[in-house]
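Continuing the series of single-chain predictions for the mutant panel. This is the parent chain; the variants come on the following pages.
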Amino acid sequence: MFFIQSHITIETHLSLPDIASVISHALKIPNMVLDQSGRYEEVPVYVSTCFGLILDVGRTDEDPPQTYQLDISSDIDAFDFDGSEKEVDATKYTLSLLRKAGIKASPRDPRLLY
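Parent structure:
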């Protein structure tokens, strides 16, 4: 089994709902919608789930202006993960799709990962 992850910073002048829509189209995933689960604390986050993945985009007050953070990870609630999974970094592939759609994106600075 595999655990897929990706952490990407997107630079844009678009609003969060607008960039969420652009990302959904670029990655050909179901439309990202405002999360209502309470999973994210005090910040608006747009989410899409498909193929056992959770894709979310949002920002915190600590993020540089006009940037958003896109995270992609395997849905650990959808599968029985036991820690033996091989990790797959989907960053390069995701970046290629985003850049092809004209989205300015780069791997997230490792110092910003928490």
